[in-house]
Design goal:
This protein has helices spanning 10-18, 26-36, 51-63, 82-95, 112-121, 130-138, 155-160, 164-173, 189-198, 210-213, 228-241, 254-266, 280-291, 302-305, 325-332, 353-363, 384-387, 390-396, 434-439; strands spanning 41-44, 75-78, 102-106, 125-128, 149-152, 179-184, 203-206, 217-223, 247-251, 271-274, 297-301, 315-318, 342-348, 368-369, 463-465. By secondary structure, the protein is of the alpha/beta class. It has 2 domains: 3-206, P-loop containing nucleotide triphosphate hydrolases (Rossmann fold); 217-369, Rossmann fold (3-Layer(aba) Sandwich), CATH 3.40.50. Helix 5 (112-121) links the parallel strand 3 and strand 4. Helix 15 crosses helix 16 (353-363). The chain is globular and about 65 Å long. The protein binds adenosine monophosphate (AMP). Residues 21, 24-25, 28, 47-53, 309, 338 line the site of adenosine monophosphate.
Length: 466
């Protein structure tokens, strides 16, 4: 099937060709004609499958006719995090280049005043995180009665972050006569319930998990000792021997991200970091350095990197084996994109056996073990003692306040008393995050949706005419 068979306008076909796409991905081939026919859709698909274009492209054609009115957006896209919202905005900018649609991005941390002004002018596409949208709604700055198209993206992630009550409330504010598209990587019962309640006769489209079927990713388990300095040595060895062009290195905790990045830099690597304690502009600046090739290694936490579309990543390293098998699929999906080949190394310490087992069960494949000789590394003068200092061990065993997963494994280390608590940002899910509260030892911790203060990069300006 070609893009020309999907029913998109000539302008969009040109945009797609300009983007370098030769054929639609499976989710695009199935979803685009149905969206254009105004059907509700349940898309069971992950990032990396081309799902964003599967709703953005037909939305542009549908919205091309008609005009926006003050405070009454014509369509609404809900995203769980600011990064994903920003990424969808980028997609609108790219695919909507030949159209004149106005767009607003409502995300926490950006001045309310600017967002209100944008809404006053009227927007065709509103992209929002649920918390900030509810805030503005309750202040009377926004009316959803003119919103005839709703996209709920990454619904399972919304569930993890406790946003489902907000989404239910938002759905009731939209007109009953509307088109609803729901995308989720998995369909746990609460998402199924949500879909049953708010979608009309939806067409369900399921596409294969890219990572579990992506034969372009060579996956290896690297047995390692539990000590972080040993893991870092092994990492340096692989980074040097494997002609790593670009790598994302995932850690389970923010502290590990910081420490590892610092250590890599000290060893002369061009690395950067991205985690939930960083201000948004900082995170975007690091990403930009990575995208521009000024750094070629990005040390990341799951939440900060989730769903981010970074092209041409040759290697993914799981410096820590992920606690949740789903995270493994997400992490290694950062490489081997668009037909390119990639390599994914997962460090597995003796304590990680169960995590590895879960990963292999989920992906249905046994991952090759890589038995490597002991690392012989030239120590930098004066560094040896520091490398082995006990402080390093303490860092590795950081408190759960620093962990970036919603659920803590049963054997998670206990909180250190002196660990600073994460301050709840303003677009924290309202009404408390019951699910998180139940599962986490330190219930007040917010999802990784940290504050945004400071200048907004160009592509994130509150209103963009695309
Ligand atoms: P997504 O799943 O929406 O995060 O998209 C993943 C990546 O696939 C993005 O970099 C898109 O630009 C790219 N992409 C989307 N559609 C196509 C296509 N038909 N052909 C090639 N790449 C695509």
């Amino acid at each position: 099937m070609s893009f020309a068979d999907l029913g998109l306008s000539d302008e969009l076909l040109k945009t797609v060709t300009d983007a370098g796409y030769t054929e639609p991905t499976p989710i695009q081939a199935s979803a685009i004609p149905s969206v254009l026919m105004m059907r509700d859709i349940i898309g069971i698909a992950q990032t990396g499958t081309g799902k964003t274009a599967s709703f953005v492209l037909p939305m542009i054609d549908i919205l091309a006719h008609g005009r926006s009115r003050a405070r009454m957006p014509r369509s609404l896209i809900l995203e769980p995090t600011r990064e994903l919202a920003a990424q969808v905005a980028e997609n609108f900018e790219k695919y909507g280049a030949n159209h004149k649609l106005s767009m607003a991005l409502l995300i926490g941390g950006v001045s309310m005043g600017d967002q209100v002004k944008a809404l006053e002018k009227g927007v065709d596409v509103l992209i929002a995180t649920p918390g900030r949208l509810m805030d503005l709604f309750q202040r009377g700055n926004i009316l959803l009665t003119g919103c005839s198209m709703l996209v709920i993206d990454e619904a399972d992630r919304m569930l993890d972050m406790g946003f489902i009550p907000d989404i239910e409330e938002i759905c009731t504010k939209l007109p009953k006569q509307r088109q609803t598209l729901l995308f989720s990587a998995t369909m746990p019962p609460p998402i199924k319930k949500l879909a049953d309640k708010f979608l009309e006769n939806p067409k369900t489209i399921e596409v294969a998990r890219p990572a579990s079927t992506n034969i372009n990713i060579a996956q290896f388990v690297v047995p390692v000792a539990a000590q972080s300095f040993e893991k870092r040595k092994r990492l340096r060895q692989l980074l040097k021997q494997d002609e790593v062009r670009t790598a994302i290195i995932f850690c389970n905790r923010k502290t590990t991200v910081r420490e590892l990045n610092k250590s890599l830099k000290q060893h002369g690597f061009r690395s950067g970091e991205i985690h939930g304690d960083m201000e948004q502009p900082q995170r975007l600046a690091e990403l930009d350095l990575f995208k521009r090739g000024e750094i070629n290694i990005l040390v990341a936490s799951d939440v900060a990197a989730r769903g981010l579309d970074i092209k041409g990543v040759s290697h993914v390293f799981n410096f820590d084996a992920p606690w949740h098998p789903d995270d493994y699929v997400h992490r290694i999906g950062r490489t081997g994109r668009g037909g390119a080949t990639g390599v994914a190394y997962t460090f597995v310490a003796p304590d990680d056996a169960e995590n590895l087992d879960n990963i292999e069960k989920l992906t249905g494949q046994k991952i090759d073990r890589l038995e490597l000789p002991a690392v012989v590394e030239e120590e930098r003068p004066g560094r040896r003692r520091r490398e082995r200092a006990p402080r390093e061990e303490t860092v590795e065993m950081a408190a759960p306040a620093d962990a970036e997963v919603e659920a803590q494994p049963a054997r998670a280390p206990r909180p250190r008393r002196d660990e600073p608590r994460f301050e709840a940002p303003r677009d924290e899910p309202r009404g408390g995050d019951r699910r998180r509260d139940r599962r986490r030892p330190n219930a007040g911790e917010a999802p990784d949706d940290g504050g945004w203060n400071g200048p907004i990069p160009d592509f994130l300006k509150v209103t963009l005419t695309v």
